[in-house]
Write a structure and sequence with these properties.
two-stranded parallel sheet; single chain; mainly alpha; 2 strands; Growth Hormone, Chain: A
Length: about 425
């Protein structure tokens, strides 16, 4: 009788899933490198978004634009972002997080610098539309950080990404304050393109997402990334292999988002993302509209009154780190309620005063927490990049028409 020998199993080889691997690696130089590398891209994203506050009103003065033409400058950015979110969502899942992120930064840099050289309204609209397309692909920092840290601190890392968004908003307002009056809005646009350059250089040190590598069957490359991370953190994982799947089937396929049991969650999250996007970008654009002090032929703003609300975002994110893991549903509901109340005060036809500034301060403070809550929950449930980009797409679709409403309201002036 022929004896069939069982294949030899090396008892020293451990099989891990990605969450287990990163739990063993812990926190160290690896995460610090990722934060420094990726958060420059988040600052670049925030800079281009916050620039909308100043670009429209200043272009209106220089090119003598109507309200609808001014509104279209902002709308075309979000129209480009809609196309970009669609393109980069599938591109990142097919080709990888790293090349998608690098391509989006190249586009942001090229057309951000191109804005400096525009000398006509049409050229400005084309450049800003392409900038919007690039913005549609800047989700990689948020996604990558959530994919490569231990589960127990994933909420903190999501907060870190939100913190750097707030930093980018503050830096943009400071750049406008220092540069716009003496060198004009084109110079501000050029300064806001610089973070994209720094982020593009930093991409050199960025590895590919091990979760994406594993989803593509490239387990060897994924193991190499994990080993490099462990070495940087001073941890010896020994010899190990990675499991082929690290999360449930419902989160692996983009189209599963639109089927039960995830359909209800997708619908509810879409409403939340759209509401957040409308409120947040409305506050940014309304602050510039309300605190504009332009005279004939000259564009200027009450920069201090715009800076104070912007500062609320990083401040509140730092405070939120101390209670990040506590009852997200309750805090999420409370933040939505608070934003609604404060925006109601913004909408009242009251004289501009310190009360108006405080209203914007608290509104943006609670909006920053909403962005964290939504982003963190979405990343934990939908692991695919295209899944996260879907909700940004919903937000961009709503944001596309919002400037036509906001800048067309004559009684704000």
């Amino acid at each position: 009788m022929e004896v069939i020998k069982k294949p030899e199993v090396n008892p020293s080889v451990v099989e891990l899933d990605l969450d287990q691997a990163f739990q063993k690696i812990g926190i160290g130089l690896w995460q610090l490198q990722l934060v420094l590398t990726l958060c420059v891209g988040i600052i670049a994203d925030a800079s281009e978004a916050t620039l909308l506050s100043f670009l429209g009103p200043c272009a209106q003065v220089e090119f003598v634009l109507s309200h609808s033409e001014t509104s279209f400058i902002n709308s075309v950015v979000f129209a480009g972002a809609i196309v970009g979110a669609l393109f980069f969502g599938f591109f990142a899942d097919a080709k990888g997080r790293r090349p998608a992120y690098a391509l989006s930064l190249v586009i942001l840099l090229a057309f951000g610098v191109g804005t400096f050289f525009t000398r006509s309204y049409v050229a400005l609209v084309l450049c800003r539309g392409c900038v919007g397309f690039g913005l549609g692909g800047t989700l990689a920092p948020y996604d990558f950080l959530a994919e490569t840290v231990p589960v127990n601190i994933r909420g903190i890392c999501c907060l870190v990404s939100s913190l750097f968004w707030g930093v980018g908003s503050v830096l943009t307002v400071l750049a406008a304050w220092l540069v716009l009056g003496s060198h004009g809005w084109r110079a501000v646009a050029l300064v806001c393109a610089l973070p994209s350059l720094f982020a593009l250089v930093a991409v050199i040190a960025l590895p590919e997402s091990p979760r994406w590598l594993l989803s593509q069957g490239k387990s060897k490359e994924a193991v190499e990334v994990i080993q490099r991370a462990a070495k940087m953190n001073g941890v010896d994982l020994g010899v190990f292999t990675l499991k082929a799947s690290t999360h449930s089937p419902n989160t692996t396929d983009f189209w599963e988002m639109f089927k039960p049991p995830l359909l209800k969650t997708t619908f509810l999250l879409s409403i939340n993302w759209a509401t957040h996007g409308f409120c947040y970008y409305a506050l940014i654009q309304l602050s510039a509209t309300l605190f504009k002090t332009s005279t004939s032929g000259r564009c200027s703003f009450a920069y201090k009154d715009i800076l104070i609300p912007a500062v609320s975002e990083p401040i509140f994110i730092i405070v939120a780190m101390f209670f990040v893991e506590r009852s997200r549903r309750i805090t999420h509901s409370f933040n939505f309620f608070s934003v609604a109340v404060f925006i109601l005060f913004v909408g009242l036809p009251l004289p501009k005063s310190s009360l108006t500034v405080l209203t914007f301060f608290f509104s943006r403070m609670h909006e920053s927490q909403l962005f964290y809550d939504l982003g963190c929950y979405t990343r934990m449930l939908f692991y695919t990049y295209s899944g996260l980009s879907t909700f940004f797409l919903v937000q961009y679709c709503e944001d596309w028409c919002k400037p036509l409403i906001i800048l067309g309201v004559f009684w704000f002036e």
